[in-house]
Amino acid sequence: MEIIYVYTRKRSEFGRPCSFSDRPAMVNVDIPPDPSMASNFVLRNPVDSYVQHTSDMSEHEVNTERVEVESRGVNHVEGGWPKDINPQEVEQTIRFRKKVEKDENYVNTIVHLGTLMEHCVKQNNAINIYEEYFGEEEMAEVEDEPPSAKTINVISKLTSFFDVLLSKRDPNVTKRTATHLSWHPDTCKKLAVAYSSLEFQQNMKDMSFDSYIWDLENPNKPELVLKPSSPLVSLEYNPKDSHVLVGGCYNGQMAYWDTRKGGLPVEVSTVEVSHRDPVYGAIWLQSKTGTECFSASTDGQVLWWDIRKLSEPTESLVLDITRKGLLENALGAVTLEFEPTMPTKFMVGTEQGIVIACNRKAKTPPEKITSTYSGHIGPVYALVRNPFYPKVFLTVGDWTARIWSEETKESSIMWTKCHLSYLTDGCWSTVRPSVFFTTRSDGTLDVWDFLFKQNDPSLSLKVCNEPLSSLRLQDNGCVVGCGSKLGTVTLLEISSGLCTLQRNEKTLATAMFERETKREKILEARHREMRLKERARSEGQETEVEESLVEDPEEVLDRARREFFEVIEAEMQRRAQTETQGLRGKVPGMAQTCNRSRDSLPWGRGRGSVSVFQVKSRAGDEAAAQEEESQLPKGKEEEEEEKDAA
After folding, report:
1. What is the dihedral of CA 524, 526, 529, 535, to 10 degrees?
2. Where found (predicted)?
3. Which residues contact 413 (CB under 8 A, 6 or more apart)?
4. How far is CA 626 from CA 109, 296, 574, 630, in A?
5. Of 493, 485, 494, 490, which is closest to residue 155 (Cα–Cα)?
6. What is the mean pLDDT of residues 615-628?
7. N-to-C CA span, the chain
8. Is the peptide bond before 33 cis (omega within 30 degrees of 0)?
9. Cβ(358)–Cβ(366) under 8 Å?
């Protein structure tokens, strides 16, 4: 049965607003029951029914904005003075102090507080609540737990949570690499990150030049945005003044910032006196003023600066290992190393895989390059001294990481296996002398403990899918920061076993370094001895050749004449032998032999004069021909003639 109800409206009423009104209910269709269908009705007994007694719940989602926190401070100079007194005026403050000190209330208060303070001082001298009773147990026993690391924070260049959801809000179309990390020297709760795209062909015109200082307690937004004139490749906190940072730019300029003055650089070096290539290394020097630093670049120069006057460098050095001081022969610097305990020495890692050891206080520029170490095929991306043994340093390049000693120049004392992916950075542990870290281009962080295992890393952790580009460890040795090619900085907390000094670790590490250094010295001495022997042998051969070349012409002529007559005499003896043997054979055969032998002589008809060497060769050919004739099968006539002769 089909029910159809048609609603009609005039064409003129189309588009008019509807006006609803209340009216009583109206029956449109009434279907009465059919008695004939009652016989088909089946009664169900029993009847099962289900009832849901729980309340109906609905799920709702709400997307709330994340709280953005800003750090603000007040610069409090001096307070507590009356309004009519200027704290900057010394005479007014002295006059007011004398007036207050004469007040009886002031004297009584000071006497009362003095007794209380005296009681506290005596109590503190009697009982030291901070005394450590087990100081000798400094090296605590570490639980036998496997080495591990966990991610505690991920810092992205995006400035808010919504930038993660909506990538179009990211102003940088080309992702920039986190090229350098620097921890805050005091709190270690702030991290300065330099961002730059080191791929020249991918640099966009609209690419951002900004680098950031992150507060780890508020990683959603950078605490300060540094705005250089060119992207920063290196960035370092001043260890003496945590408000000051120095940075090396992509275009070779040097700049420094004071965080109290904002994100713009305080001063920038001029292009004419700066580097010609990106500044890959910038390190603060140990000085009284705390304003001196030096930088290195792939243009082959090391420049010293004073940030109070960046108009020109205070000193320069050309990295020419031929010691001629030519810039066209200089090796490009990729990394710098400076140890404050050795203020005059520094080391440079180059693009050619050579490590250059330098001494700044040498008298002449050629003497500043003291020694070189060659051990890598590609650029040296990391160069760090061991904080416990400054004469031992770590280099990272190509597919290996190598440990060197200053006493062995020709070869490293220890090295890792060759990895399948390129190594990009490395550093020593600040608390354990036998632990160091390396990063790889496949996004893996390796932690090595050569006292525990030497063939493989103690811990390998896949940090991200993109290549890791930079690495920096906190001073406490427990947190490590890894920067990636796409600009993401991952902070990892290392397990206690890898950041706690083990018992007798320093003694064992010292013994291993000394043993490997001694072994390399023995091998170097052996190789040096073999090279000297080879050189002496080659020089002896050269002198013989020179003597033969300088020989007297008369001696050469006499020797040639003597050899000539020796060959003639040998030929005549051979002919006599052939004649005696030819009497037994055929006369024609003998004649042929004689003719052939006569033609082979140097005075033979139609032959002209020949050299001694030609006579020797022809005599040899004659003897070979005779041997062939003797080996040929003899005919019947020759056999009969031999019988008759017998």
Report:
1. -80
2. Cytoplasm, Cytoskeleton, Cilium axoneme
3. 392, 403, 404, 405, 513, 516, 517, 519, 520
4. 137, 81, 11, 6
5. 490
6. 46
7. 145
8. no
9. no
Residue 178 has which token pair?
């986190």
> Residue 269: how many CB atoms within 10 A of its CB?
25
Do residues 498 and 504 make contact, with C-beta atoms less than 8 angstroms apart?
Answer: no
Q: Give the Cα-Cα-Cα angle 333, 226, 437 (nearest 5 degrees).
A: 50
E-strand stretches of 197-328: 211-215, 224-226, 232-237, 244-249, 254-258, 267-268, 279-284, 292-297, 301-306, 315-318
Q: State which amino acid sits at residue 593.
A: T
Structure tokens at 90: 């010394």
| Burial zone of 457 (CB within 10 Å; 0-12 exposed, 13-18 middle, 19+ buried) | buried
Q: Residue 248 CA to chain centroid, in angstroms?
A: 18
The dihedral through the CA atoms of 174, 178, 179, 182 has a sign that is positive
Residue 554's identity, in one-letter code, is: E
For the beta carbon of residue 51, count every other beta carbon within 10 angstroms.
Answer: 4
Structure tokens at 73: 């401070």
Ranges of each domain in the chain: 151-159+167-520
Mean pLDDT of the chain: 79
Query: What are the residue ranges of helices labelled H in 312-455?
Result: 365-368
Chain centroid to Cα 635, Å, comes to: 87
Alpha carbon separation from 171 to 108, 200, 204, 208, 254 (Å, rounded)? 66, 19, 12, 7, 25
Range of lowest pLDDT (169-183, 413-427, 439-453, 539-553): 539-553
| Of 432, 353, 338, 418, the residue nearest 384 (C-alpha) | 338
Beta strands in 77-189 (DSSP E): 149-155, 177-183
Residue 426's pLDDT is 92
| Look-up of token digits 């020179």 | 546
Taking Cα atoms as reference points, which of 356, 251, 368 lies closest to residue 317? 368
- CATH label, 151-159+167-520, candidates 3.40.50.280, 3.40.190.10, 2.130.10.10, 3.40.50.720: 2.130.10.10
Q: 563 by DSSP, 3-state: which?
A: helix
Q: Which residues contact 375 (CB under 8 A, 6 or more apart)?
A: 353, 355, 395, 397, 402, 404, 411, 412, 415
Q: Hey, what amino acid is at 308?
A: R
574-599 pLDDT, tens digit per residue, is 888 888 887 665 544 444 443 443 34
- Distance separating alpha carbons of residues 224 and 192, to the nearest angstrom: 9
DSSP readout, 101-129?
HT-HHHHHHHHHHHHHHHHHHHHHHH--T
- What would the two tokens of residue 214 be? 């992150």
The pairing of beta strand 345-350 with beta strand 333-338: antiparallel
Q: Helices 553-582 and 612-631 meet at what angle, rounded to 10?
A: 20
